[in-house]
Amino acid sequence: MRVQAFFAVLMVGLLVSAPAMAGKVSYVDGVGKWVPSGCTAPAPMAAMDHNPEAKANALNARVAEHNQFVSVAEAYMNCVSQEAQRDAEAFGQLITSSAQGIINQTQSDISESATRAQAKSATE
């Protein structure tokens, strides 16, 4: 339960800082999901005919079409990888800075508590 609450708070923090993120993050039923927003997936190719009587020119055209699809798909995968890397770095920085803020606030609370305790004991 604590882990889910932590991730829910973390996801809200992530969504609040969304301008620094390229992809989109969702969190539903305890499951987080990231999808790229700056990359366009290639349209899948139609299935090739398995006609042994097909002419060589038609087969060569399909092979060229397949090679073009592979090239576009590779560019898409590179885009996704780069966007994910940038978001992972931004997400890591978000966690680190948020944790440091919590630590700083807790240290401040401890110092204030010690000051109040010393002041109270001095008046007694």
Biggest sheet strand line-up: 1-2
Instruction: Describe the main β-sheet briefly.
Output: 2 strands, antiparallel
Instruction: Please report which band the strand proportion falls in: under 5%, 5-15%, 15-25%, 25-35%, 35-45% or over 45%.
Output: 5-15%
| Mean pLDDT value | 83
Task: Give the % helix.
Answer: 55-70%
- Helix count? 2
Number of strands: 2
Distance between the termini: 44 Å
Elements, N to C (H/E): HEEH
Short description:
67% of the residues lie in helices and 8% in strands. The protein has two helices and two strands; from the N terminus they run αββα.
Give an overview of the whole structure.
- The chain is mostly helical.
- The longest helix is centred in the last third of the chain and has 68 residues, at 56-123.
- The chain has 2 helices and 2 strands, in the order αββα.
- It is 67% helix and 8% strand.
- The two termini are 44 Å apart.
- Strands 1-2 form a two-stranded antiparallel sheet.
- A hairpin with a 2-residue loop joins strand 1 and strand 2 (31-35).
- It is rod-shaped and about 105 Å long.
- It has a domain at 38-123.
List keywords for this structure.
two-stranded antiparallel ribbon, 124 residues, 2 helices, 67% helix
Write the SSE topology.
Layout lengths: L1 H15 L7 E5 L2 E5 L20 H68 L1
Antiparallel strand pairs: 1-2
